[in-house]
Write a structure and sequence with these properties.
Layout lengths: L7 E6 L6 H17 L2 E6 L13 H5 L9 H10 L2 E7 L7 H9 L1 H6 L8 E8 L6 H14 L3 E2 L11 E4 L4 H6 L2 H24 L1
Parallel strand pairs: 1-2, 1-3, 3-4, 4-5, 4-6
Helix pairs in contact: 1-8
Length: about 210
């Protein structure tokens, strides 16, 4: 691809650990680079200082970003840079992790400054559960809802195997567990294919 058509992909791991979710998001980026020659950036919530949104409305009043000056500031620039995002989360109590939710909540500071900041960017999701039916789809749905609210374009891999996004069963074996989940890998690759192709289409329209 030429520089003006090259797709930029941001991978975000919303896990406090660098294990299965970290593996899944990096596998999505590796696959996208190998198949489509995209540019990629990665952000992990692991060991990051990330404060909760406290709904102080500083971002709305000042339009200068968030009142918190922590490690999420670097993520804002990556989000604006990217044409498409894939957010991965571990499943906690049947839904997404607190770290993933904090990342999404804190995006309010970006759209308060520019309501169209994320408009028409493409968003995909992946979730990792210790059980096969551990809450992966509710977790993914929450991420897809965030994309809709942010005026992004949510995508998944399509019917018959990747209905909402990349769904993984780690069997509580960390990266080794998800690497062995062939159906999870297939669902992820199908989701990445749709994400990149949609981002290409959107860039062509622009």
């Amino acid at each position: 691809m030429s520089d003006d058509t090259c797709i930029r992909i941001l991978g975000i791991s919303g896990s406090p650990r660098k294990k299965s979710t970290d593996y899944v998001v990096n596998e999505a980026l590796r696959y996208a680079q190998e198949k489509y020659n995209v540019e990629v950036e990665y952000f992990s919530a692991s060991a990051k200082d990330m404060k909760f949104c406290i709904h102080c409305d500083y971002c709305v009043r000042k339009k200068e970003g968030c009142i918190h000056k922590d490690d999420l500031v670097e993520l804002y620039d990556k989000m604006l840079w990217a044409d498409a995002w894939i957010i991965g989360t571990p499943v906690y109590q049947g839904t997404l992790s607190a770290q993933t939710k904090t990342i999404m909540d804190r995006c309010r500071a970006v759209v308060a400054r520019d309501p169209k900041a994320f408009m028409n960017k493409v968003g995909a999701a992946a979730a990792v559960g210790g059980d096969r039916m551990g809450g992966q789809e509710p977790a993914i749905q929450t991420i897809l809802n965030f994309y809709v609210i942010s005026e992004m374009i949510p995508v998944a891999g399509g019917s018959f195997g990747s209905n909402l996004g990349g769904t993984f069963w780690s069997k509580d074996k960390g990266a080794e567990g998800v690497a062995e989940d062939s159906e999870g890998i297939r669902s992820l690759h199908r989701t990445v294919n749709k994400m990149v192709k949609t981002a290409m289409a959107m860039k062509t329209l622009k």
